[in-house]
Amino acid sequence: KYYSELDVAVGPEHSQVIHKYVDEDYLWRGFHPFHEMHSGDEVIHNFWIPFKQAITRSQRRMDIFMAGENSLETGGVWVVSMGHIMGLFDSHWLGIPPTGKMVFLRYCEFNRVENNKIRETAMYFDIPHLMTQVGLNPFNSQTGAHLVQPGPLHHDGLMFEVQDEWESKKTLKAIDFMVQDIKGWSGGKEEPLATELARSWNDDMIWWGPAGIGATYTIERYAKQHAGPFREGLSDRLFNGHICRMSEGKFGGFFGWPNLTLRPTGGFMGMPASDKAADMRVIDIYRCHEDKLTENWIFIDLLHFWNQLGVDLLKRAVSNSNSSSL
Predict the structure, then answer these.
(1) How many Å apart are CA 125 and CA 110, to the nearest integer?
(2) Distance of alpha carbon 234 from alpha carbon 126, whole angstroms
(3) What is the average per-residue pLDDT within 215-223?
(4) Cα–Cα distances in Å, from 179 out to 81, 147, 201, 216, 227?
(5) Mean pLDDT of the chain
(6) Where are the extended beta strands (E) located within the chain?
(7) Could you count the other beta carbons within 10 Å of the beta carbon of residue 23?
(8) pLDDT tens readout for residues 115-171
(9) What are the phi and psi torsion angles at 307 (to 5°)?
(10) Cβ pair 93, 50 in contact under 8 A
(11) What is the pLDDT of residue 182?
């Protein structure tokens, strides 16, 4: 109901919707340049109204909708939505020039619900993915494929009915095993990357990564096109934990704020190496098949990561676009 009313709201109707569904004591987390906000009205005026004025006739095209108990100590009931917000790019947004054409903003949103109100939101969105659609590429290179990303293989991610509890537990077990088994912050033994990955993933896995990294298919290509370059380029990898980790049916996921702290001493994404550490804010959504993970949608705040290292990719790309149009 919140989504259906928010998506069609105009002008002052936004505040009516937000006060109806969102608690007064509210925390909203979003990607750079938005970061944290502490009231529904702040989110409406700083994010939703400017976005909808720029991206007109917008549609929420959900691929996954699920809910469950947070398995971590903090607990709570969380409702998760993932997909794209599509619209016509008719006015500047964050300095990005409009095209008058369709664009898709990849998003994933975790909402903590308590006493029938939304108390906390993590809404992560792939701004560089939108930028590349209008001809602005903020990154120097990309190891995977750039795509407008589809939802689950079997189109079964919209779970408006309660799912099988045993299936949900099996999915969470697969996610937990993968997190604990990752070499680099769990003391894993030295072994080929493909050997490690095969314990958690089906061989025909698909990793739907963010713009700047891209998507990749099969364990072999994932190791070559993302996991290998990631580990080679980023050292002193520190896992900071998650705020929520949950599952429902064959799907599950987690987010952190931040999940990781890393040092790009080997260079990463075609960027210069640095001895300075920076944080990564990440959402992972998974589909499980049998006892292993098989699809994974990733949202990483790469603008924030590189901004901490002194590189404002959003500003640089917009400035270059303005210069070339003169």
Answers:
(1) 12
(2) 21
(3) 97
(4) 22, 26, 12, 20, 14
(5) 94
(6) 22-30, 35-37, 55-69, 77-89, 102-114, 117-125, 201-208, 215-217, 235-239, 244-248, 251-255, 260-263, 278-280, 282-289, 292-300
(7) 18
(8) 999 999 999 999 999 999 999 989 887 888 888 999 999 999 999 999 999 999 999
(9) -65, -35
(10) yes
(11) 87
| pTM for the structure as a whole | 0.95
pLDDT at 59 over 80: yes
- pLDDT at position 318 over 50: yes
What's the pLDDT band for 319 if we cut at 50, 70, 90?
confident
User: Which of 219, 297, 196 shows the shortest CA–CA distance to 255?
Assistant: 297
Q: Residue 58: what are its φ and ψ, rounded to 5°?
A: -70, 145
Question: 22 with 31: CB under 8 angstroms?
Answer: no
Closest by Cα among 62, 119, 127 to 94 = 127
**203's tokens:** 């061989």
Q: What angle do CA 210, 212, 216 make, to 5 degrees?
A: 60
Could you give the CA distance from residue 1 to residue 90 in angstroms, rounded to a whole number?
27
Q: Which residue is listed with tokens 């072999």?
A: 220
Tens digit of pLDDT for each residue in 165-195? 999 999 999 999 999 998 655 444 578 999 9
Query: Whose structure tokens read 């520190």?
Result: 238
Beta strands 77-89; 55-69: pairing state: antiparallel
Side-chain-facing half-sphere of 82: CA atoms under 13 Å: 32
What is the C-alpha to C-alpha distance for residues 199 and 205, in angstroms, rounded to an integer?
12
User: Is residue 238 a contact partner of residue 260, using CB atoms and an 8 Å limit?
Assistant: yes
Residue bearing tokens 């898709």: 104
Provide the pLDDT confidence category of residue 276 given band limits of 50, 70 and 90: very high
| Mean pLDDT to the nearest integer, 58-62 | 98
What length is written for the chain?
Answer: 326
Expressed in percent and rounded to 5, the helix, strand and coil fractions of the chain are 30, 35, 35
Residue environment code for 33-49, b if the CB has 16+ CB neighbours within 10 A, otherwise e: ebeebebbeebbeebbb
